Amino acid sequence: MKLEHIESKFAAMGARLKVRAIPSRWQQGERHWLNPVDYAIDIQRDRRGEFFELRLPTHLAEAVDFTVLNAKPEQRHLLLLARKVTDQPQTDRFLCGHDERHWFVAAVPGRVSNVTDAMESLKPDEVQAAQVREGLDNRQRHRRRNPAFRRQGEWFFLPAPELVIEPVRVLRDEPIRRGRGKPHEVEELARTGGTRVHVCSEFPNGLTEGEYQQYVRERPERARMGWRVMVRDAGVYARGAVRHPDHATITLPCWHRVLMNTETQSRTMANVAFLD
Question: Is the CB of residue 225 less than 8 Å from the CB of residue 201?
Fold first, then answer.
């Protein structure tokens, strides 16, 4: 498979793309070849800085085609299409670009064909509805701060100035995170509803109370894995400073509803959860 046609698109927006072949390996115990399951695209770093890395199993080299559907070099964004033709065909879309300080890759749900639509498709329905209510034009919708929302990375914060929360329900310096991602630290946070889960490095999306009890009953030595009790898919509200090492700190003067972008609706992110 030739990738020169997409490498030039990445270069035009000031980025580097490297392709790494992932070979099959011999599974000695079961005496058969173990093939990597799928391709992946991610951000890596070397002595020259960050770059996009496309990891491609060698047995899929001729079965996956990559195409840049749309590129906006001036915005440092492009939309990448991955089409796999195998026994189980699949098509995935990725928004690749630069946000504040770093390059990023976001799995995009739906059948969008350009950068603008991809950026909109990553916004939850509530965010899109807020944009309409505020009458935002296209330029305002792409800002990280506008009358409808504040954004920090994959998180959107919608103003809820009339909301009153009892002080006893307010948690301080709480993390919110998506799967294995770095947490965003919130100065003040309150939640409603959701599912209580036990989280550790092996189970970043958490186990429910019943799942956790069964797991440690069957494997008592795993009870010392540094579990943390968190809440999955709760209604979450934030106020004050929101900090993350990859983004500028934002300050929310009143309570804001917290919403995650729609990456989890895509096939490639289907198993990622919203934890706080």
Answer: yes
The neighbour count for residue 75, using CB atoms within 10 Å, is 14
Q: What is the helix (H) or strand (E) element at residue 96, kind and residue range?
A: strand 90-99
Matching residue, tokens 């920090």: 152
pLDDT tens for residues 167-209? 999 999 999 887 667 899 999 999 887 888 998 888 888 899 9
Q: How far, CA to CA in Å, does 187 sit from each of 100, 245, 253? A: 21, 15, 11
Look at phi and psi of residue 120 and say left if phi exceeds 0, alpha if psi is from -120 to 50, else beta.
alpha
Number of H helices, E strands in the chain: 5, 19
How far apart CA 241 and CA 181 sit, in angstroms, is 19
Position 7: which residue type? E
C-beta of residue 56 within 8 angstroms of C-beta of residue 21 = yes
Please, which residues bridge with residue 26 across strands?
Answer: 33
- Name the pTM for this structure: 0.78
Give the integer Cα–Cα distance in Å for 103 and 5. Answer: 20
